Amino acid sequence: MSPEPVPGAVTCGACGATFHPADVGVVIPPPGTRANRNPLALVAVALVVAGMLYFGMHMSRRSGPEGFNAKPSDAPDFTLESLDGKSMRLSDLRGKAVLLNFWATWCGPCKIETPWLVELQNQYGHDGLQIVGVEMGDDSKDEITKFTKDMAVNYPILIGKEAVGDAYGGVPALPETFFIGRDGKIVDKIIGLKGKGEIEDSIKKALDTPAGSTQAAITSAASPAQALQAQK
Q1: pLDDT digits (tens, 9 = 90+) for 138-197
Q2: Measured between alpha carbons, how far is 132 from 154 in angstroms, rounded to an integer?
Q3: What 3-state DSSP class applies to 215?
C-alpha cells in the first residue's frame, strides 16, 4: 500500500524528489484552522514552491550533452566586430571545432568559467579548437578590454548584437555556450555554468566531427537565412 500524501508536499520536476513542508522550514496549518492562518506563512510557502519549480526547470535545461537530443543543425552565420576593430565571420572558421560562448563582464558565472576557457584553448587549440567569445552585456570596449586583460583571455572577443543572440534562441541566460563541429553544425550546448570536465567533453564531441566539403561551407555561408551581417 502506497503512503498517503502529506499535505503541502511538493515533488521536484527535475529529480523526482518529494519535499515536505518541514524540510524547507515552513509549517502549513491543517485544514479547518483558517482563523489561525498567518498570511506571511502562506506567502513563504508560495515562494518556496515557486523556487523549487524554477530550480527543477533550470536543472532540466542544464541537463548536459545527454539532454541535447536535437538533430545537429547549421550554426547561424554572422559577422561581428572584434575588440581590435576587425570584422570576424563565423563561417570563416569552418574546418575547426568552435566553442561559441555568449557572456558578459558583469556575469558572475562567466568570471568563473573564463579561466577554464583560457586553459581549454591552450590545451585543444593545436587539435583544431577555436573558442570565440561574444560579449552580450552592452559594456564599453574599454570595460571589455580590461576584463579580457585581467583574465588573460587568449581567444577572440566579439561585440555582440541582439540579432545574433536571437538567431541562437534569444540567449535566455549567461553564460550560454554552443559547440560547433568542423562541419559547421551545432553538436551540443550548455546553458549556465557547468564544470570544466563537462565543457571539455563537449569540446571533444565537436572535435570528433568531419570537416565537410568546402562547397557546402560556401553555400551555407552565402545563405540569406543563415547569414547575419551586423552593422557597425
Answers
A1: 899 999 999 999 999 999 999 999 999 999 999 999 999 999 999 999 999 999 999 999
A2: 10
A3: helix
The answer to whether residues 77 and 165 belong to one domain is yes
Instruction: Give me the sheet containing 77-81, strands edge to edge.
Output: 87-89, 77-81, 227-229
For Cα atoms 19, 22, 24, give the angle at the middle one, nearest 5 degrees: 65
What global pTM score does this model have? 0.65
**Residue 170 and residue 158: Cα distance in Å, rounded?**
17
Is 1 part of a structural domain of the chain? no
Domains: count for the chain: 2
| Best CA proximity match to 100, nearest among 191, 229, 197 | 191
Helices 196-207, 108-124: inter-axial angle, 10-degree rounding = 40
Q: Taking phi first (over 0 means left), then psi (-120 to 50 degrees means alpha), and beta for anything else, what does residue 128 get?
A: left
In the block, which residue shows the cell 593545436?
A: 126
Contact 83, 157 (CB under 8 A): yes
Domain of 51? 10-61
Q: Are residues 55 and 75 in the same domain?
A: no
In the block, cell 498567518 appears at 38
